[in-house]
Specification:
With about 230 residues, the protein is mainly beta. The protein contains one helix and eleven strands, in the order αβββββββββββ. The protein has one domain: outer membrane lipoprotein receptor (LolB), chain A, CATH 2.50.20. A hairpin with a 2-residue loop joins β7 and β8. Bound molecules: 2-acetamido-2-deoxy-beta-D-glucopyranose (4 copies). The site of one 2-acetamido-2-deoxy-beta-D-glucopyranose (NAG) has 8 residues, from loops. Keywords: Signal.
């Protein structure tokens, strides 16, 4: 009897240790963005209702939450929702376009090659910088390898997008981001950024990269209006 009780006790202790250790292993912490960083990427947009179905372009992010300011470059070939249709006088609407976020108050659309720029929107329209903790609610369901690097997958609960999936290395280098805005009844569109992991740089952004040009209009001829 005594033997059985001791064995049961030992088994319980063993089970407790196993659960605790595996629990500690799976307590993977969600990544937090550094207060300043930059990274380049390749952007791909797929929509089976558009011609062409796929748009591809290069781009970059410059992010500095200490100011706060950010710049999102969508380069030649872009069909970015914010850049398009603002009523600027452009020879090529798909030319290099920067989104400039200033003080979480204004977002400007800037075509540097055409010296055309205007304020498109602000927080009222959801035009704010990405939060440093945008992955705080995310869950790890799967991992994947990108360009030979192991990346941890993070799913953001469906709010803004039904599918919002990030991949980051264990030390926080961004690998890939994909959003799927509508999932009915099959996937009809997706938007992705494949990050150039070698270009990821943590540290302050040169101030001139984040400056709003003097020729920016205070308001676009056609300001950005979010869908419905
Ligand atoms: C750009 O997007 C619009 C709708 O958002 C679409 O109608 C158009 O075909 C796209 N153009 C290019 C060049 O991809
Ligand atoms: C638009 O730009 C072109 C050349 O870049 C210029 O000739 C034209 O006057 C401009 N139109 C307006 C309304 O500013
Ligand atoms: C993903 O990789 C991390 C880090 O190696 C690991 O802790 C986690 O359990 C993995 N997740 C899955 C779903 O395999
Ligand atoms: C993929 O990895 C190779 C080797 O490290 C590197 O030279 C190349 O730039 C990487 N490509 C991308 C898109 O990150």
């Amino acid at each position: 009897m005594e033997f059985i009780r001791r064995t049961a006790q030992a088994l319980l202790v063993t089970a407790w240790i196993v659960v605790t250790i595996s629990g500690a292993q799976s307590a993977l912490k969600t990544p937090v963005w550094p207060s300043s960083f930059s990274v380049r990427f390749h952007e791909k947009d797929l929509n089976i209702f558009h011609r062409p179905i796929t748009t591809e372009n290069d781009g970059a992010w410059y992010y500095d939450y200490s100011i706060p300011a950010a710049r999102h470059d969508h380069l030649q070939g872009q069909n970015n929702t914010y850049c398009q249709g603002r009523g600027l006088n452009l020879t090529d609407p798909h030319a290099d376009c920067s989104l400039l976020y200033v003080d979480n108050r204004d977002m400007y659309v800037h075509y540097p090659g055409e010296r055309q720029c205007c304020r498109a929107c602000g927080p009222d329209e959801g035009c704010t910088m990405m939060s440093q903790t945008n992955l705080a609610q995310a869950t790890n369901y799967n991992n994947e390898t990108f360009n030979g690097t192991a990346c941890v997958g993070w799913s953001i609960p469906p709010e803004k997008y039904p599918i919002d999936q990030w991949y980051m290395t264990e030390i926080g280098t961004p690998c890939y981001w994909e959003t799927i805005p509508i999932v009915h009844p099959f996937i009809v569109s997706s938007h992705s950024l494949t990050f150039d992991q070698h270009s990821y740089h943590v540290g302050p952004i040169p101030q001139d990269l984040l400056k709003v040009p003097s020729y920016c209009l205070n308001i676009c001829p056609n300001p950005y209006v979010p869908p419905h």
